[in-house]
Amino acid sequence: MLPVIRTLQRVWPDTRITWVIGRLEARLFGHLPDVEFIVVDKREGTLKARNKLKQLLRGRTFDVLMHMQLSLRASVLSTAIPAKIRLGFDRSRAREMQWMFTNLRIAPAAHQHVMDSFFGFAEKFDVYEKLLRWDIPLTADAVAYAERVIPQPGNTLIISPCSSHQLRNWRAEYYAEVADYAIASLGMRVILCGGPSDIERRTGEQIVGLMKQKCENTIGQDTLLQFFATLERATALLTPDSGPAHMGTAAGIPVIGLYAATNPARSGPYLSRQWCVDKYDVASRKLLGKPAAEIPWTTKIQRPGVMDLITPDDVIKKLHALLLSLARHKK
């Protein structure tokens, strides 16, 4: 979302932008300059959050609402936002009845990456530039934390092992094998990162327990902004389809994404498609009986064992290729 906002700020410098954002996401973006943030706490329930939002916006009117979220909850929340133009997705992509909550739609498009679909909202107003710029400002606390974790930038592989969907996660023993190889054979430093949830902490402990080499486990110890600052000092990130994959892109580092349950062409790290391990078509053929080209673009193959289609050797080969590419660029 942020590159779309950066593009609009460049093209429309006098336009005021208000971003209705979740509580968790606000921890990373909520301090951006030149954007007004209104934070919604999803834990309160949809109707209560909607009523709060309506009170906050009482007496205000917006020229345009760019309704970029497809969930029904977001559509209900959008009814609290007074706007002349309520722009949403075209009918074929307006899932969960989003089309009922808008009065204007972006141009239809097939097989688009999610970020490109967001840029469709700018294109509706004849803004065709795509400014791939994030520029998330760092606090002194975040910088200090990152400098403690990675004193010297570079030669560091960060592993963020978990996504919010358990069936997208890779085996702990596979992460351990790749981490051991990165340390013993490639001379890299390996750091485990993640949130404070039970599954993330448990996965981190399992990886450490299975490893022969020594890595640093920081899971549950940082804030989102501290994690982002740490990414900026790393060489690469290894992660499944997850929020951290996109944070790695925003931080300017290559991402080795693990994709079998979901389609990296649709939701993978935008600037690291060549570094993703892509077993989505293999999964489609094996579990759905047809190639990925013949299933709906948004299909998620989140079935037990699907991520086992990715082997440690697949990841090690990508890591080798990535490091070779980075070495060539340095020359």
Order of helices and strands: HEHEHEHEEHHEHEHEHEHEHEHH
Q: Which class do the helix and strand fractions yield? A: alpha/beta
| Helix share, percent | 25-40%
Number of strands: 11
* Main sheet makeup: 6 strands, parallel
How many DSSP H or I helices? 13
Distance between the termini: 34 Å
Radius of gyration: 21 Å
Residue stretches low in confidence (pLDDT < 50, at least 5 long) are none
- Please, what is the average pLDDT? 96
Side by side, the strands of the main sheet go 8-7-6-9-10-11
The percentage of residues in β strands lies in 5-15%
Name the overall outline. Answer: globular
Molecular structure report:
The protein has helices at residues 2-11, 23-29, 46-56, 72-78, 114-123, 140-149, 172-184, 198-210, 224-232, 243-251, 264-267, 280-288, 312-330; strands at 18-22, 36-40, 62-66, 83-88, 104-105, 156-159, 189-192, 216-217, 236-240, 255-259, 277-278. It contains 13 helices and eleven strands. The chain has a six-stranded parallel β-sheet, sandwiched between helices. Strands 3-4-5 form a three-stranded parallel β-sheet, with no helix packed on it. The radius of gyration is 21 Å and the shape is globular. The two termini are 34 Å apart. Helix 4 links the parallel strand 3 (62-66) and strand 4. Helix content is 40%, strand content 14%. Helix 3 runs parallel beside helix 4. The protein has 331 residues and is α/β, with parallel strands linked by helices.
